[in-house]
Write a structure and sequence with these properties.
The chain is of the alpha+beta class and 82 residues long. The chain is built from two helices and six strands. The chain binds iron/sulfur cluster (SF4).
């Protein structure tokens, strides 16, 4: 099992909740109506980053976001999956 790097642009989240439903280990809703990337680290540009073990539900969660603010990179291949 490889690793995924997740980049999440929280500012652009519209609170559609799909990511939380598809991977509740990865995202939770916050009181301000936006999702939090659980364990994510805030980067200088305001996005959040997390490196974690690869799993299918991460891809589903990112693909489920209607405003495409969740990016997933496979660290083994360096390729952007979502
Ligand atoms: S699916 Fe996208 S818009 Fe909806 S809560 Fe998650 S990150 Fe935000």
């Amino acid at each position: 099992m490889g690793k995924f790097r997740i980049i999440y642009d929280r500012k652009a989240c519209i609170g559609a909740n799909a990511c939380v439903v598809l991977d509740p280990q990865l995202f939770e809703m916050d009181k301000d109506g936006k999702a939090n990337l659980i364990g994510g680290k805030k980067l200088a540009d305001g996005t959040f980053e997390l490196v974690t073990d690869a799993r299918e539900s991460i891809i589903e969660s990112a693909r489920g976001c209607p405003v495409e603010v969740i990016k997933v990179i496979d660290l083994e291949t360096g390729k952007k999956i979502v």
